[in-house]
Amino acid sequence: MIDTHTHLYSEQFDEDRAAMIDRAVDKGVEQFLLPAIDSETHEKMLRLEADYPEQMYAMMGLHPCSVQPESLEKELEIVKNYIDQRDFVAIGEIGIDLYWDKSTLDIQIKAFEQQIDWAIEKDWPIVIHTRESFDETFEVLDRKKHPKLRGIFHCFSGDLEHAKRAIDLGFILGIGGVVTFKNGKIDQFLNEIPLDKIVLETDSPYLAPVPFRGKRNESAYVALVAGKLVDVYGVSFDEINQKTTENALRMFNLKKD
Questions:
Q1: I need a surface site. Which of 135, 166, 186, 252 has the fewest CB within 10 A?
Q2: How far is residue 111 from each of residues 35, 80, 124, 167, measured CA to CA in Å?
């Protein structure tokens, strides 16, 4: 399995990071994709990638919750400097979040569009954070439509129409702990989405799946997400594992270990 979205460099893992990674490997997780947040954590993320060069793959980007008027230009310049220096598996996580702060919508859109342009230039996928902002996110993607624009709707929590629209735009869905929640609702229609349009993720340390909801999430729990998809799709665990892994390898241009 591949955990396509995990903040393993988070301070919540500082006490047991190596053991947590070992638990995930024991559960069958072979690769971990690390989404960027902002300049406060870039170095920690890149050190972790360097410590596990066969398993960890970093993204680069500015998270919408870190988009602030006083620091936006500096933060975007830092992202640009990194992507000019080396390759990353994606630009992410980027997007629009209107749950925490609606007042920054205009500059969130500006940052989102700029980073989309860089991804198209580099021919890299993007990993989209969208919270209470599907309409605004789709408006940006419609404006920026391009043959090279593709990626993941991370932590997908929309409805069936959102899912179909994302797929029509060249994106696939990142499925994590929300699929196990009673009020998550995506398990009610997900089987209408082809298996080749989803990947597994945890978003650890956030959004732990049932039965760990409300506790610290970790990459080993991606197996619980896969287990829920066995029920949703009515296929074997091995098929869920194989298809979602193939999808991640293809989207992020990775080689299988």
A1: 135
A2: 16, 12, 17, 23
**The pLDDT of residue 257:** 58
To the nearest 10 degrees (0 to 180), the angle between helices 134-143 and 105-122 is 40
Q: Give the 3-state secondary structure of residue 141.
A: helix
Q: Are 132 and 101 in contact (CB under 8 A)?
A: no
Question: With contact defined as beta carbons under 8 Å apart, do 241 and 226 qualify?
Answer: yes
**Per-block mean pLDDT, blocks of 10 residues, the chain (257 long):** 98 97 97 98 98 97 97 98 98 95 96 98 98 96 97 97 97 97 92 97 97 97 98 97 98 85
Distances (CA, A) of 132 to 6, 10, 43, 79, 96: 21, 24, 30, 25, 8
Beta partners for residue 12, in sequence order: none
pTM of the model: 0.97
8 Å CB contact between 212 and 162: no
